[in-house]
Batch of 4 targets.
Target 1
Amino acid sequence: MSELQRLRADHAPALLAFEVANRAYFAASISDRGDEFFEHFGEHLEARLAEQEAGEGAYYVLVADDGSVLGRFNLVFVEDGVAELGYRVAEQVAGRGVATATVRDLCELAASEHGLRTVKAATSHANPASQKVLLKAGFVPVGPADPAHMNGKPGTWYQLGPGSGT
């Protein structure tokens, strides 16, 4: 059984192991984080924790029974009541409904714990797995994503909440 946990500093070793182990897998469908991310992982984690403490976002990890990280799920608060969702799951659990179930759980937390009315997510056209996750989780496409927001790739914005038909 896995558990969705709010990101904490003590997640650092397992989170870094997750990122390193899945780097090539992630790079096949989304932009690689680059060597700088891994070289300065502690600083990046501290920045996310500071954002979370300041109320600028809510960051979660999906933790397996053995303490390993199976996924990370981020809510970045972009305006009052609205957040952008980002997520990635380990290759070992991909295609098993883990991302969809966890996105659903996180969207419930978004409303109940963070007072969010709308959650948005953008995915590139080259990432059909992410599109499928969002659709199964109840998101609907609401328009094109600016390629500048998608590391130069064409994509689509999806939304859950007011204006999405849900």
Note: The chain has a mean pLDDT of 92.
Target 2
Amino acid sequence: MIALAALVVGGGVSAALLVTADPSRGTVEAYAAARDVPAGAGLTQDAIQLTRVSLAGGTSLLFTHRDIDRLTAMRAAHDIAAGQLIQRSDVMSSTSIPDRRLVLIPLSAVPTVPAGARVDLLVIAGSADHPTVAPFALGVEVVASASGGLVVAVPAKAAAAFVFAGATMHLAAVVVEPGAADGAELPVATADDAMALAAGR
């Protein structure tokens, strides 16, 4: 009986050691480039492949097998080398501007916005007694959240306008829900305007 118990215990220890030593523990499958992908090219099925990787910080910045539809609807934001793990910052929407520039927009209250989402930027102007809120730019692509603001992608010819707005205007960001229609925000200059619009009138 003692010998049998020793065998059982020994087998249990061996199994535990095998599980602990299993190199697949703590790994995930994430997409990497199957070949060199030039900037602006679509991430088609033949351009990507699942690769098993070991990560300590999670997969929030990567694309896993559940993200295949989203990933294949995107384009490379810059040249991606074969074998490189594809991160959120490496891709852009298929509708993104090819000559885009990245601009930091300071915001007093920054919404939680993932990379690739879109926001409508509204400008708050007027005086303390008579404030106004009006659209500044609609459907702007967010590249990243930053301390005190959002990094957005804009056409090169509009970059100076966004820099000017960020430096001199009081801007607020409204997050666009995925799949939502283009923004149709209306300016608000009075409490009556706000109440009428909020009531759907």
Note: Residues 16 and 84 are 34 Å apart (CA to CA).
Target 3
Amino acid sequence: MKAIVAHKYGGPEVLKYDDIPRPEPKEDQILIRVIAAGVNPVDGMIRSGMFAKYEKAAFPMILGADIAGVVEKAGSRITKFKPGDPVYAYVSLKNGGGYAEYAVATETEASPKPKSLAYVEAAAVPVVALTAWQALIDTAKLSAGQTVLIHGGSGGVGTFAIQIAKARGAKVIATASTANQDLLKELGADGAIDYTKTKFEDAVKDVDVVLDSVGKDTLARSYGVVKKGGFIASLVARPDPTELKTHGIRGASISVEPNSSELAEIGKLIDEKKIKVIVSQTFPLTEAIKAQEQVATGHTRGKIVLKVADEPK
């Protein structure tokens, strides 16, 4: 099969379009013919070796945790899927990622593709939607009537976080640049803050939950806007225990896990038109380098997706 492969850590130039053996599913795996693969900022971080001190990659390495495609083959212990089923998944890189014509996934990583989405849109969902869900619902326990401040509302995680919070019955305030103010409102934000013109801490106070996917500076400025007993969830740094104690709030740094039942819940909200998927650009698989360079700018609206194969008729 064709795949984008890295044989060593480094910049985008280490990514090569190569022929490699097609993976064979184990008894607890499905083989998926990949139609589209999502591109996330973390892909470039893994490629550069940022996490090598915690976990060494096995080379040759195929990046990409987000995929949408069709089940080609199912292992003997698979009960939920059969060949021909349309699926989307958050795949483990240990078994080979999604920048490839085929990938393998377990039943805990894959879920039926939302019927209302094309494969390119579906591939934009798993990692960022699960990150938003696990931060807001599982960790911060966001409930109806609460107010949440979402930093970076126009990005991959932010676009889903706004809509998941609204579906939960929360009031949403989100930050983004001038160009993305209309998008925040379109996604359902009750309040939109242009961070290039207004300091969010001057415009907001007494929120129940903050979700930060922007940076340490934003996190440092967020403690004071959370009401006592509230929660800060950060994707970028560990909240400072001293600041949390001083303000009488709780916090956690968020990492994301594959979860097929949550992916199914998210798919249901998508098919009920409560969540729309924002894909700003698609690239062919051969242009994975360009896709990663764009994502690395930190100014992508929604998601970027690699188109691996034509949509099935």
Note: The first strand starts at residue 2 and ends at 6.
Target 4
Amino acid sequence: MVEGSQATDSRDVALTIPARPDYLVLARLALSAVCRLTPLSPEEIADLKLAITEAANDFVDDSRGLDDESRLSFAFRLLDDRLAMELEGPDTSVSGMEQELSRAIIEATVDEVDFGTGRTRLVKYLSASQS
């Protein structure tokens, strides 16, 4: 039911989970593991976990039944100067106000964000001189 894979470069991690809120803890754990390889502070890591959770809200729906096959994919890529995170999943009907608040939280916690149909890309620079 939960699929995870690690690319040949140990600095790239991909995870695919059911598009349900109760599985988001797995993405947060994967992000925490990747962040252990960075110079990010515990506060910055907590901010990234919040950002990834908020970004996932565009794709998860707690009304989905256990037989729903919708999936949410996460890709974490650790580069020398930044951590890039990409989410891909099914669109859900999130209210405008809820989505606006989520996006404000995301924009306050990462250095770059790109919202697209069915995907969101987040970037956190690892050096203060590059943000």
Note: The beta strands are 3-6, 12-18, 71-78, 82-88, 112-116, 119-125.
